[in-house]
Design a protein that fits this description.
The chain has one domain: Alpha-Beta Barrel (TIM Barrel). It has ten helices and eight strands. The chain binds zinc ion.
Length: about 270
């Protein structure tokens, strides 16, 4: 079955070891078989039978915007779809969104915890507006994060307000709508316009809540994702196949929904 992984991370070769090590040290995360480089990700994709991966970057300092944009240009290919980042506190964050769109990218990643902003802060609205105006996809961290325990600013219901404020925004709430805040997603976001990726949300065994979310959320809005290198792509596909017994739904999640959103041919 053809597969798109809508949520992965990688770093420039010279930076990968340091970046992965720093995140491991600040959280309980452990890298999988992938080593945080693009070549490592491609090897992992080959092993797992994944055609395409979205690589999401996060700018945590103003100067990273340009380096991430340039690196994203270098690594873009048929199999690698980079989502660069915007630095929200930059005076020209709106222009950064324009630059990302002008460079031909399909989307951007924002992470309120790593980038330390409140999702509903008014100064974010023009940035979201620019993302929507240029038809960029916003891959949005949602829910808790293992590196920021106790910080609940990204509740799914909070994140959904962003889309209500910015009509037309194509927003993907990561981690099954919100890492470890699935009840809030079920209660407030099920059936909404928000897309979700299932990274970090695929259970080891069949689960009523998981089935409810992926089956009953708005059609076409659930996408496979792994958060590689933090999870192993092959293992995550195997888990997904174990907990979804409908081939049509599985095919939609593994390929169709993301292909449609990204504009990739079937
Ligand atoms: Zn991630």
């Amino acid at each position: 079955m053809k597969t798109i992984d809508f949520h992965t991370h990688a770093f420039p070769d010279f930076l990968a070891e340091q970046a992965i090590g720093a995140i491991e040290a600040s959280s309980s995360l452990q890298r999988s078989h992938a080593d945080g480089t693009v070549s490592g990700l491609l090897r992992s994709m080959d092993t797992a039978g994944i055609e395409v991966s979205v690589i999401a970057s996060i700018a945590t300092a103003e100067k990273q915007f340009v380096s991430i944009l340039n690196w994203s240009r270098e690594i873009a290919s048929d199999r690698i779809i980079p989502f660069p980042s915007i630095y929200p506190f930059s005076a020209d964050a709106v222009q950064q969104a324009e630059q990302v769109a002008d460079a031909g990218f399909r989307g951007v990643k924002l992470h309120p915890l790593y980038q330390d902003f409140q999702p509903l802060n008014e100064r974010m609205m023009p940035i979201y507006g620019a993302i929507a105006d240029r038809d960029l996809i916003l891959l949005f961290h949602s829910g808790d994060d293992l590196a920021f325990l106790g910080d609940h600013r990204c509740m799914p219901s909070t994140m959904l307000q962003v889309q209500k404020r910015v009509p037309g925004l194509k927003m993907v709430l990561s981690h099954l709508g919100g890492f470890s805040q699935y009840t809030d997603f079920e209660r407030h976001c099920l059936g909404s316009e928000a897309y979700i990726d299932v990274s970090f949300g695929i259970p080891d065994q069949p689960s009523e809540m998981f089935t409810h979310i992926v089956r009953d959320h708005t059609a076409g809005r659930v996408m496979f994702g792994t958060d590689s290198p933090w999870n192993d792509q092959k293992t995550e596909i195997e888990k997904l196949k174990r907990v979804i017994d409908k081939p049509d739904l599985l095919e939609d999640i593994l390929w169709n929904n993301a292909a449609e959103l990204l504009g990739i041919g079937h």
